[in-house]
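ok so i was messing around last nite and threw this chain in just to see what happens. nothing serious, just curious
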Amino acid sequence: MSERFPVSTPKAGAGVLDLLRRFAADPAAAIAYGEECLKKTQAIEPQLKAFEYLPRDVAPKTGPLGGIPVAIKDIIATSDMPTTNGSQIYRDHVPDADAWVVERLRNLGATIFGKTVSTEFAWRHPGPTVNPWNPEHTPGGSSSGSAAAVAAGLVPLALGTQTLGSVIRPAAFNGVVGFKPSFGAIPRDGVHPLSPSLDHVGFFARRVDDVAFALSLLAGTSADDRHGRPLPGFTVGIDQGLTPHRTPRLAAVRFAKWERAEAEQKTVFESVIDKLRSAGATITEIELRELDAVNWHAITTIMLSEATTIFSDLIARHPDRVSEVMKGHVESGRSKTAMEYLAAKAAQALRQKALAAELDGFDAVLTLPAFGEAPRGLDWTGDAEYCAPWTFVGAPAVSLPAGFGNNGLPLGVQIAGPYRNDLHVLRVAKWAEAVLAFDPGVPLLARK
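result:
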């Protein structure tokens, strides 16, 4: 372990439910907290580069999320702040209206705490954000700034999006909890599309309770998002949080790509299995061969085909303001035939339906969120192949911090389940979180 990044770091900041309990006992604390978050962000931001835009007003509002600063990924529209979509084309663009999810947050009393850096249109071309554990490494993408901001303790909650692995992977790389709800759980009105068959809105926080609380308040449907499907409603009590699922039955899934994982990531995974078994979980190894065989080719076929339709005209109109990475992806999308796209969509529907049957008798899947630590350098945001299966079938997935690698960067595990089983997956994750009792602490850049 690198001496620059010892495991015995200070404890991380308070979570959303912790703060709401504090604010209920002392309303003035909400004012001080918002000001403290802004002051800390202004101090760290020159090094972290997590934000495109910071708020001018952090005064707390009233409501279920009153006093909670929420950072917004910069492909999600805000009517009072620029929304750049990570692109020079939209550098000064201020939308006419909030995205559905932002409007909902405002109505719940949340403080919209600025716009966080996204890769270009939430695709692969990265922004300037660094990993707060080591600025020589990527924070992951595409929700780069949101993950880094929560890890650094600048905000307790942030919005991200995932089309391949853009919530789960950066959550693992930054040592925070990431949650991608089931496909269609949160309307995407006002979220710049990348691939409408795959785009999800998700969350970053420090606790499973916090992402569960966010989902309980933000899940919904909109007439303008035809992919929406309401989740079974649930509530999360501020005092007790989510009720954990006791001693779950877990399917450990390694996939054929397991051999490519870093040794330290494998060690952390085996350690997690041992700890959960010791606490009473039943864990059985399964393969999910059919999903493993088709998901990567099918998901990239869908994404490239749909993204090419969305971005071809934009590239034609602004060739000098679009990255070569984007141009290359769109060119790849043009090579996809209609038959390939339709076959991929059929595989998506088949595997989504089949997963529920394949996981019959299990409460959730336990797998990796990434191949290991965040890669060195800022040009590559990491491999999304361990996230892709669950995005492909629209399944709920949670990333939990679980350890550190040889470079002192966080490592995680991923818990997933069948489509629309969000509450069940979150309850399993809450139980696992308590058993692991792993607090990664405060990253280097935040220790000021």
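not much to say yet. The chain has twelve helices and eleven strands.
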